[in-house]
Design a protein that fits this description.
This protein has twelve helices and 16 strands. The chain is α/β, with parallel strands linked by helices. It folds into four domains: 41 residues, no CATH class; 78 residues, OB fold (Dihydrolipoamide Acetyltransferase, E2P), CATH 2.40.50.140; 146 residues, 3-Layer(aba) Sandwich (Rossmann fold); 42 residues, no CATH class. A five-stranded mixed barrel has the order 4-5-6-8-7.
């Protein structure tokens, strides 16, 4: 029986042999076709397509394909149909709704993409196609990898540290702008500056912000702005765009130029959803160029209103202060000290004399009261004195050590004693001791 093997490289090999040939390689016997001389009837087209579909489905796993989209169309069902092509060939493709809902970008004709797909056959039309499970922009993976790698490197080196970021100046005389003079970003900044701070000078470093040499030019312009001097704060940025348009602001040269800048830098790259390496290094990140200008420049109109309010409050305070001074001066002018000074002096002298008299009387009274208390205490002390007792005819005997003899047990016959009388003392010798 004849057999056909469809190889993965698209070639075709025909084999002829018998069904009972057990030596045939099973891998080559994927789908059997009868030769015309062996078949009693021809195959239908559907049978051929079905057989080829079975061969492809059994022999192929997922493939990774790079190509350019053509004829992209999304149907109301949610399914998407297109072709992937290169310079020499093209392949029909389909992305079913279950996979299409996971797309995180908008595919369009001419876009270079990567596709993860399986190969199948659309039997009704008789052609093979790619059933795409995942689709991504070509280059997006490499860009994302490079972004993450550079971000990790600069983070480790400390370029993103909040501690090194400088505060913006409270007043700005000169604003530096690094961007393209032909871009909308510059005119957004000028418009905001004209409204908020028309007195501020704007120094522009005209710089390409996309293209192969953009990163080098942006870095050089940042250094030139620092060398120029006289700039209080600098805005570095551009308007929105695709990831490729913003690529210059993800370059290491730009990041290091911002880090080395002596002038505080506000990054203003793209729209609110866009983040670049420059945003992480800058002292302040603004979502748009307009927001960057609003961040850099205080609103002078609001400042004027605040100044006017402060001036009004100051004027009210000054008026109240001087009114109080005037009231006090008026009171002093009408006081007795200025209208009748001689009478006030006489009254003061009289008051002094009266105070002196009161003090003298108080001192005399205090002395007399003290004398009376002293006499009373002296009398009480005298009544308690041992001499007063002796004056009433009593005497006190003491031993040779001068200690008072309180008991007959304290002396012995022959001891010398001293007897204290009211007007003196006498010596004596103990001749006898009696307890009676």
């Amino acid at each position: 029986m004849g057999k056909i093997n469809i190889n993965t490289d698209g070639g075709h090999n025909f084999f002829y042999g018998d069904d009972d040939d057990e030596d045939d390689d099973d891998d080559d016997q994927i789908f059997d076709f009868l030769t015309p001389r062996e078949s009693s009837k021809p195959y239908t087209v559907s049978e051929i397509n079905s057989g080829i579909a079975k061969i492809l489905e059994e022999r192929n796993t997922l493939v990774w394909v790079e190509g350019e989209l053509s004829g992209w169309k999304r149907y109301p069902s949610g399914h998407c149909y297109f072709k992937l092509k290169d310079e020499h060939s093209q392949i029909p493709g389909v992305m079913w709704k279950s996979a299409a809902v996971k797309l995180n970008f908008n595919p369009s004709d001419g876009m270079a993409v990567f596709a993860v797909a399986s190969i199948g056959v659309y039997e009704k039309a008789g052609y093979y196609q790619l059933s795409v499970h995942r689709l991504m922009p070509a280059g997006a993976g490499a860009q994302s990898l490079a972004f993450d790698k550079l971000k990790a490197k600069l983070l480790k080196e400390g370029l993103f540290d909040e501690s090194r970021k400088r505060p913006l100046p409270r007043s700005v005389s000169a604003l530096g702008v690094v961007t393209s003079k032909n871009g909308a970003a510059l005119w957004d900044i000028v418009r905001v500056a004209a409204k908020r701070a028309p007195q501020t000078d704007i120094i522009v470093a005209d710089t390409p912000v996309q293209g192969d040499t953009a990163a080098e030019n942006i870095a050089r312009s940042i250094r030139v702005m620092n060398d120029f001097g006289g700039v209080d704060v600098m805005i570095v940025g551009r308007g929105g765009g695709s990831a490729e348009d913003l690529a210059a602001f993800n370059e290491e040269a730009v990041a290091r130029a911002i880090y080395d800048s002596k002038i505080p830098v506000i990054s203003a790259v793209g729209h609110e959803i866009d983040f670049t390496i420059a945003d992480f290094v800058a002292d302040v990140r603004a979502p748009t160029p307009s927001a960057a200008a609003e961040t850099a420049l205080p609103d002078t109109a609001e400042g004027r209103r605040y100044f006017e309010q402060c001036s009004a409050r100051f004027a009210v305070g000054i008026n109240r202060y001087f009114a109080a001074i005037n009231d006090r001066i008026g009171y002093v002018k009408t006081s007795r000290a200025l209208t009748r000074p001689a009478r006030m002096l006489a009254e003061a002298e009289r008051s002094l004399d009266e105070a002196g008299g009161r003090i003298g009387r108080s001192i005399k009274s205090i002395i007399m009261a003290g004398d009376t208390r002293l006499r009373s205490v002296a009398g009480r002390l005298n009544s308690l004195s041992p001499l007063a007792v002796l004056g009433r005819g009593y005497s006190v005997a003491s031993d040779n050590n001068g200690m008072a003899i309180r008991s007959v047990g304290n002396v012995s016959i022959g001891d010398n004693v001293s007897i204290r009388l009211v007007d003196g003392s006498v010596g004596a010798e103990v001749k006898s001791v009696s307890t009676k």
